[in-house]
Amino acid sequence: MADIFDVIADPTRREILRVLLDRSSDATHAAGDISVSEIVATLELSQPTVSKHLKVLREAGLVAVREEGQHRYYRLDSRPLESVEDWIIPFTASDDDLQLSVQLAQETRDFASSVGKVLADTRHRVTSATERVTPKKWRRD
To answer: Which of 62, 71, 47 is nearest to 14 (CA)?
Structure first.
């Protein structure tokens, strides 16, 4: 599989992704599918050119295809772009964003620690109470 950055580096593929994104956000097309011929008409490119780029996008997991007879309908799958987003965020985040991220991480750790302590204390209390009221012959020692 090609590197996601190589895939989206091509301007024609980015235009195809834009068309697919527009279709996916269009309320009149619930499924978000678009045919190859519609992409060809929208971008005013040849069908072989569009098909070649759709193949690259499909291999990268950026589009899903549905076959209906001889027609192919494509829709955007943006999940592979999350790795691009993860890579870009540190370059675009402000100092305030980074401080907020650190603060949230610390709050999450504090919360998890508190929950862990409560669960451990509850388990200890339940075990102690069970041992006091359960006859020895029924205990698993």
So the answer is: 62
Q: What is the pTM of this model?
A: 0.63
Looking at the structure, tell me whether residues 65 and 17 fall in a common domain: yes
Q: Tell me how far CA of residue 136 lies from CA of 119, 125, 126, 128, in angstroms.
A: 26, 18, 16, 13
Give phi and psi for 58, each to the nearest 5: -65, -45
Residues 76, 29, single domain; the answer is: yes
Cβ count within 10 A of residue 60: 19
- Which pLDDT tens digit goes with each residue over 96-109? 776 777 788 888 88
The H-or-E segment that residue 121 falls in is helix 95-133
Domain contains 88: no
